[in-house]
Amino acid sequence: MSLTPFHPVTPLDVVRVRLQSQPAPSPVSAIRSVATSSTPTSFSNLPPNLGVSACCREVFWVNNNAQFCMVGPTTSTVDATSVAAASECAVEETQRKTFNSTLDGLRKIARNEGLSSLWRGLSPTLVMSIPANVIYFTGYDWLRTNKRSPINGYVNDTYAPLIAGSIARVAAASVTSPVEMFRTRLQATSGSGTGVFRATLKGLNEMVHAQGYSSLWRGLTLTMWRDVPFSGFYWWGYEAVRNSLTDTRDRARGRTLDPSRSRTRLRSRSRNQENHTSTLVDSFIAGATSGAAAAFVTTPFDVGKTRQQVLQHSDDVRSPRSQGIEKILRPEERSMPRFLYHIFKEEGAAGLFRGWAARCLKVAPACAIMISSYEIGKKMARNMNERR
């Protein structure tokens, strides 16, 4: 049941990664300024992967495999008309690969790379969903309900979901971190066909050979920055909304909570007496509401994680830097707080929340379906055990 949400919302996840890893400000304006220049000399200062090299081959009929298109007076066969044609081609290619919104990204990816590209990363998502959800949900339940859990003795009921959710996510993320890194790199790569999958897998293989198996967990810290706050806020919000719905239903039935008794146990007993429909509706509403809110609040961490992992991927596929040259620390190589502050200074709040719509549209239904399926399954299992 936990695999159900991932299939329909995977396209939103692909668009989210592309939007967040897209250069800012928009590369369209940068390349247009080069194209309209009276004497365009090069495209070397533009962001990579914009298809500009294809324009070189198309306009100048040369086997140019460079990452950037170079145009200048040193090329004797290039006249002003060819330069203008290359510039216009570059603008069109850039517009084709630049996304302005979630809907625009869905449309362009489907049109330029094929419909199947929108489901890129589904396989690794399914692979990691089983162990991740088993550890995540069972870990949270144990921390919240087991008498031996340290949370029950030292943490107030109000904040217990936040702490339990955060700890459960740490355990789940530690197990699935290598698959998460592979999925992020796969979704950030443009193109179509099985070549993208093979190239990404080859890149990870080369990274392991060069840096050891521990490099597969290199993105764990980045994942923690995003997932741990999200899980804490999600379970905190879920319990709050679910409790509110349970209390409202109890008041409608004439029941009142005894202030001298534990509210958690009274609500748990009330939920055990609910039918499957009430459990499904309450958990679905609470899951969708808290999931959307937590996704929005933690979007800056998601942006930082995506950009830093994509940068690490581009470094892995590039040739090593020459020794003896002092390495300049790029913004993406800073700590997460400093990198997020850099994004805020350069791009404002809009940069920190880039892709929030796609993220919320993906997370809300996924959380709603997962938690309601889990609650129904848990209720059915409890009823079966009681009949024995």
Describe the structure in brief.
The protein is mostly helical. The protein has helices spanning 6-21, 27-35, 52-60, 80-97, 102-113, 122-145, 150-154, 160-188, 194-211, 220-252, 263-272, 276-297, 299-317, 336-347, 349-352, 356-387.
Architecture overview:
The protein is built from 16 helices and no strands. The protein is an all-alpha fold. It is elongated. The relative contact order is 0.12.
The helix tally amounts to 16
Major β-sheet annotation: none
Radius of gyration: 25 Å
Distance between the termini: 24 Å
**Silhouette:** elongated
The portion of residues forming beta strands comes to under 5%
Give the proportion of residues in helices: over 70%
Features of this protein?
388 residues, mainly alpha, 16 helices
Write the layout of secondary structure elements.
Blueprint: H1 6-21, H2 27-35, H3 52-60, H4 80-97, H5 102-113, H6 122-145, H7 150-154, H8 160-188, H9 194-211, H10 220-252, H11 263-272, H12 276-297, H13 299-317, H14 336-347, H15 349-352, H16 356-387
Helix pairs in contact: 1-5, 1-16, 2-4, 3-4, 6-8, 8-10, 8-13, 10-12, 10-13, 12-16
